[in-house]
Design a protein that fits this description.
By secondary structure, the protein is mainly alpha-helical. It has 3 domains: 79 residues, no CATH class; 152 residues, no CATH class; 122 residues, no CATH class. 68% of the residues lie in helices and 5% in strands. It has a two-stranded antiparallel sheet with strand order 1-2. A two-stranded antiparallel ribbon has the order 3-6. It is globular, with a radius of gyration of 27 Å. The protein starts with a helix and ends with a strand.
Amino acid sequence: MSIMALGATVEIGSPVTIVPVGINYFNGHRFRSRVFVDIGVPIVPSASMVDGYRSGGAKKRDACSELLDRVVEGLRAVTIEAPDYDTLQALRATRRLYASANTIMSAQERFALTHAFAEGYKTAANDPRVRRLRSRIDEYRKSLVRYGVSDHRVATSHRSEDIIDSVGLSVELLYRLAQILVFVVIAIPGYVLARPVFALTRTISQQKAAEAKAKSTVKIAGRDVIATWKLLTSLVVIPLAHAMYTTIAWVGGGTAVATTYFFFAPFVCFGSLLAVERGKSVANHIVPLFLSAIRPKTGERLRTLRRDLQQEVRSTIKTLGWDRTLRTRQPDLYRPFSKKSFDDDDGIEEDDLPEQWFLSHDSSHLRRRV
């Protein structure tokens, strides 16, 4: 990579930018599974690297090595190791609770925090204090989902009414219910047509995965085999199913019906797929909206829960030393808090918290949120 970047820079006369990208995905064997993509700080070869590459020999090797080291460092910064989706979300929640809500962090600072906490969690996951903290963070995250509220909204709102508006939520609830009805009507035709295809691909892929696990000593779940065979089976089954349905339409309704079905059925199925996905997203908001509408004091409870949880997060990180890597790798970004730093920090009184290590308020690194 470093040779290609420097070579291209010399060839075209302008620097080639390298962008580190970290990818986390879970349940990759499922159709349209969720993927998290973290984009790091762009890396641009310096003039000294380009000059060293032009010189050739040892200077060329040194320039390539220097750029490669920067690339590896950039990839390491955006690669967050987590065993599952819930752990990754818990680490991100820890970062948001640790940081102050009235500041905006750069991508580099967010990655540094999350990476440090991931390393600390990996070595202390079974510590009773960490397990208790993880349990409380998961409970807080579930509460946010249950009431359809973001953590940023809870952190930056000064009144409980700003978090949850019962009248507005009641109107939103009726609107969402109407959306669900429309999506159900759209999704039914495509679901009926695609159901046999999904059932067949699932059955074949699971059988092939079982065979692969029986023959292998390293496969645990065989999910890579499931994903591969779902794709291969779909490439064969979907055209056959479309041809079969078209033939049925021709037998039952003639050439005009068969032609109409042949050209428009793919669009109907695609629209049904989008309706199902959108419908699931809307349906997930129904219960939170209902609970929020009938519980007007929920906003204040969420603010109190977040304030208490933030204190525990900072105290636990301080006690276990999860910020040590931050102080050694990026000492210019971190310093000890003084109690006066809490005067405007998420509405927390200065007597509520002890002195903590925290993100520096140096204006060269952070900007106030306005």
